Amino acid sequence: MQKVLKKTTGVLCVSFAALLLYANLRPLSLTEQNRPVHLKIFSIDEPVAFEQAATIKSALKIPGITASCVNAAQQTVSVTFHPGQIGEPEIVQAIALQGKLSVKEKYFPPTPVCPVPPLQAMKNKLLKSLRFV
Amino acid sequence: MKKLKLFSILSLALALSFTACKDDDTEISYEVDPNSLYSRLGGFEAISAVTDQFLANVAGDAVINARFAATVADPFRLEVLRNNLIDQICEGAGGPCKYKGETMAEAHEGMDITQDEFNALVGDLVAALDQFNVPEQEKNDLLAILGPMQTDIVGK
Fold first, then answer.
1. What is the CATH number of the domain that holds B62?
2. ipTM, 2 decimals?
3. CB A29 to CB B25 under 8 A?
4. Touching check for B63 and chain A: CB below 8 Å?
């Protein structure tokens, strides 16, 4: 019993060490080297005029924000951004046009089927967490 | 000491075996035809910027954004979607990337995507390309590459 336990521990240690080596030695593709972005959707509590939508779009042209979309009809603003460079409070402040509008994050009830399987995301998460640089 | 040596050798051998089944994308040739659509679109940075705008448009599109709610909520899942989109456009345009996601038929199986939803997605891509003033020729070339995927996406 002790022998089996010892061997299992050995196999697990070797596997972990191998995974650690693989995570750190494998060459990264162009997209993997790309800085990741987060995507948030915000809702505005009052109707948004066309000119106001254009002003919000301009206000979001700040470092850290890679893209934005203002949907005046739906009263929503979607933003992609580098999380290490800009935070959500600054984005909300920019959308609110210095306090003129009331803005909050919008949540959607997810549909049961999504085009991105979670398994690939989990694999990437594991390899990233094992990478030293 | 002998055990440590054996441990190191085994780890290295296993790591090498992982690398042997590495993703195809690691074998990248950075030589790109200057006349390719990839080059005419502006290369990797431009494709990445258009993709971010495309994602922002999709997230703001009431017709289809609920389909992506679970992906948007998880940064790692979002990263997979973003990277897959960039790889798909980059590879299709003749760039040095390799798409490594599921086939379109596999990825959309059981989703029952309607023609209206597909059209909305194409509209969001066109809007992103327009925002970056992508010329008509390049826009049509790109849509001609992505268009045939419709049969694998709609009604599956």
1. 1.10.490.10
2. 0.83
3. yes
4. no
Average pLDDT of adjacent 10-residue blocks, chain A of 133 residues: 87 87 86 93 92 94 96 95 95 89 82 71 85 79
Segment holding B143, helix H or strand E = helix B136-146
Three-state secondary structure call for residue A81: strand
Asked if residues B62 and B123 have their Cβ atoms less than 8 Å apart, the reply is: no
Question: What are the residues whose beta carbons fall under 8 Å from the beta carbon of B10, sequence distance 6 or more?
Answer: A14, A18
> A with B: how many residue pairs have Cβ under 8 Å apart?
169
B11: nearest CA in chain A? A18
Tokens of B69: 């709610």
d(C-alpha B80, C-alpha A121), whole Å: 6
Whether residue B8 lies inside any domain: the answer is no
Predicted TM-score (pTM) of this structure: 0.84
Q: Closest-CA residue in chain A for B79?
A: A36
Residue whose C-alpha is closest to residue B25's, from B91, B73, B126, B97: B97
The answer to whether position A92 is within a domain reads yes
Domain range holding B131?
Answer: 28-153
Smallest CA–CA distance, residue A58 to chain B, in Å, is 13
The verdict on residue A47 lying in a domain is yes
CATH of the domain at A46: 3.30.70.100
In a domain, A96, yes or no: yes
Range of the domain at A60: 38-105
